[in-house]
User: What shape does this take?
Amino acid sequence: MKRKGIFALGAILTSLIGIGVYFTNILMFMKKKDASFIKEREIKAKRWVVEDFDALPKKQVSVASPFGYNLDCLFIHPYPSKKWMIFCHGITENKYNSIKYMNVFLERGYNAVIYDHRRHGESGGKTSSYGYYEKWDLEVVVKELKSRFGKDIILGIHGESMGAVTTLLYGGSIRDDADFYIADCPFTTLQDQLHHRLKVETPLPSWLVLPIGNAFLKLRDGYRFQDVSPLEAVKNITKPVLFIHSELDDYIPASMTKQLYEAKKGPKQLFIAANGFHAQSLNENKQQYEKAVDRFLQTYS
Assistant: This one.
């Protein structure tokens, strides 16, 4: 009987370890889209016009992350003005996914920085952390930009999905030093987002999986779900924020952006697009998206 009890305990421990490792592997090493796929997709949709992009004056800049790898950035500087935008892409994408957003702001007289997040594109880094480590990477990109073009630049930061989370975490927990932020389809908290995805994608109970995953994530990558909370960060942002989401988004619900909008005090605007699923607000509502951006810029820039 004693031996059976030991075997049973061993089987339980093995199962718990298996759940923890499997769950955190998915989080930390989510399969990225192939760079050629992103390029072909964006060119086919005419969001990336190669001739126009190649003609832009640009400089490839390698910025050292505080975590020991380099971030691959493109500083795109067609105007002599002090107006700059930094763009943060979503999970599994790369900096070229940001071209469509960059084009919106180039048309409005802004220079731009597009860059690869850690573990994406040409940047280093072994894991994705959904904004936790990425927010400090964004800080060094901002510092590099200001060291080159002056602390008096007019700076906006735009993020999509994980990039939107990174943007809000940066402004609300690192430094609120941009002139404005645009957060397109962020989640409220990593815990809430994982709970939502588990409910949609698997029969596994979140009450079992999430505590195990949380413990293993802290052990393997140094942070907890609770450490990734735009909902808390946004309360500290005093600068204007434009919140954007697609009503039909079934990956990160639009209700999360509505919660973030309600939690943000001070200057803010909200645009809920009628069409498109996750991260498709611009692609499926271009005219309305640009009107929302113009309204925001006219009000706060």
Q: What stands out?
A: Strands lie at 58-64, 70-76, 83-88, 111-115, 154-160, 180-184, 241-246, 268-273.
